[in-house]
Structures are given as structure tokens and as C-alpha cells.
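We close this part of the discussion by returning to an individual protein. The sequence in question and its C-alpha cells are set out directly beneath this paragraph:
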Amino acid sequence: MKLIIRDGINQPFFLKAMLLISMTFLLLGNNLFDRKVLFLNFVVLLLFNLKNLDSVVYRLGKSVPLVLVLGWCLLSAAWSNWQWASIEESLIQCMLFLTCLLITNTYSIKTIFKLLKYAAIITIIINVVYSMLFTANAFSSAGMTGFYNHKNNLGLIMALCSIILFFDYQRSARKESLLFMLLSVSILIGSLSKTSMSLFVISILISFSLCFFTFNIQDKLFNFKIKTFLVVVILALFSYAATHYNEILDYLYYNVDEEFMTGRGTLWLTMLLHAENDIILGFGFNSVWGKGDFSEIYYTDLFRYNPLWVESLAASDGGYIDILVSLGLVGFAIFIFFIFSVFQDLISCKKSPYFKPLFAFFFFAFCHNISESTYLLSTNVLWFIAILTSCLTLSLYQTKHGGMNV
């Protein structure tokens, strides 16, 4: 079986236009890239790839860690109190994954990054024009908000745009990339979003630093040994957490300040305590938070004492806590295996010209999920980019290790 690596030249114009518009919607947020847009992309790309389904199936078979994560999400509906909500969101996640898989099977990496650059430039222009026309809405005492409803949303998108344009300028030395990168960095600073500013700098520095290390994990057997070791470590940690959960929870309860990370401590402790008796399997995917829909959060002490706050929340502002509570220790272990598998495959391709931006994207999303809930959250921009990065990494990895003729 052959893995199709396209050069991006033979695709019809409408396919490129569709992906450009979709990526722009994704960066603009405000629910522009919703399930209807996702479904449209999925159907069109699937129809276009009907003659190359063998390559799609091959990619699917090589994406075992993410398939296991999504499989566990779907399986968790069996014990979820909100089964249809769990099934529905699991299917949405499957469609999101397959759409990213189809994108990498349809376009070359070069074309995808070119369209990402154009989408970033369009997003920056729209934010600049909006801020000039609607100054009262685009600026606040807490920081610049631009086209978005919160400064952190603007900061996040500008950080992603800056990463895209920074590495495009590094590869091509195009002046427009430098100009818009400087503009996006200026807006990022104006947003006063400390998390996004910090992660932007750290992600770029680490991606560059890894290129200077002399270690080489490009041998397939060595990669297999590392993944085997990773599985053993995760299983050992899972066993310890499963047998000592009460002690771990007691330690957190007495040592984590409720005001930790601007009140996140309260949310995290509440959810962990509520999940004490269901920690192995979790409550079920998409059953904890609903924002308007009845869900597990309404059974906690947090809702009893502060119902208005709970009504305004869509997640606990701690992505890994949300994964642990909804998917349990089993699902959390599978998810961590997926994350570190992608990191390993990325590092093994560090000689690729696309390693730095892909690593910066994935590392940014990985760290951002600590303080915000982004992973496994519908069509969230960082989760989409994380999945797309994992699919693009598969293309790099299989090409590097002879995947063209399997």
C-alpha cells in the first residue's frame, strides 16, 4: 500500500478556497467554524478522496493512539448519565479527526502552510480594521479584545498567527510575512494575554533548541522501544494513581489554594472531589459540562453555592482535569500516550523544514490546555490544530521512514 503525498498542484481551485475560508473562520472564532462548516469540509474532502481511500485507511491505521482516545470517548457513553450527549460529541470528534486526516491526504504540507499563512494575514487585517472602526468594542481596560469577546481569545489567535508567520518568514524570507508577523506580535502584546505571550516565546525557543541537539531517534526499532517504554511508564503511573487516589486527593485538597490560578483551584478541587468514586472510568465523555444543558456539574457543591458562576462556565479552565473527570484514569492514560507519541514522532523528524512550526503548534496547545480547556472540546481552534499537527506529523514520519512504499 502506498501513502499518497500530494504536491498540492492538481487540486481544483474550489478545494483550496474552501480550506482557506475554513481556516480563516477557525482563526476568527465567534463560532464561525461550527459543525455545519466541519461537516461540509468532511463531505467534500471525502468525495474527492474516494479514489484514494486506500491511502486514507493507511493513515487511519497509523493513527492508533488517537483512534484509541476517540474509541474510549465513544465507549464511555455506555456508563454516562447523558448517553446521547456523549455519543453525539464523540461522533463530532471522529468527524473532526477524519476531516484533518482527509486534509493531509488531499493537500501537500507546503500547500497547507501556505493557506494557513493567508488565513493568518486575513485574520490580522480583519482585527485591525475592526479595531479602527469599533474602538469602543475592541479595547478594554484589561487589554485589547479586537474582533473577539475577550482579550485572551485575541491573544491566543495572535500568538498562533505569529507562529505561522514567523516560521514562514524563516523559510521564505518574504517581506509580507515579516510585516504581518510584527503586526500580530504588536496586537498580541496589546491584548495583555500573559499566557499566550509566554507560550509564543517558549514554543519558538524550544522548537529551535531541539534542532541543535545531536540526539537521533530516527531508527524505527529505537522508536518502537521508546514507545514501549512510554507504555510501561504510563501503566505504572496509572496503577499507582488508581490505588492511591484518595491519598493524592487528600494531598491536593490540603495543599492547593482555592484561588490558585485566578480561582481555578476551586473548580479543579470541586471536580476531583466529585469524581472520587468514578475516577477509574470517569463520568463519560461530554457529560460533565454543558453550559445551558443539564450535566454532571449541576450535582456538585459548586452549583449549590454559586449557581450563576456555574451557568456561565463551559469547562473547568483546566483541560487535563476535564479529561480526567470525564474519561477517568483509563482515558487519561490513553490520551497522555497519544500526546507523547506525537511528540516523539515530531522529534524524530526534526530535520524537516516543517518540524519547527509543527512542534511549536503542538507544544503551544499542550501547555495552553493546562490553564484552559481546549482538548476534546468540539471544534476548538487549538484542538483542531493539535489533530492536524498529529496528521501532518504522520506524513513527515512515514515519508522519513519509508512510508511511501508500505
User: Anything to note?
Assistant: The chain is about 70% helix and 0% strand. The first helix runs from residue 13 to 28. The mean pLDDT is 85.
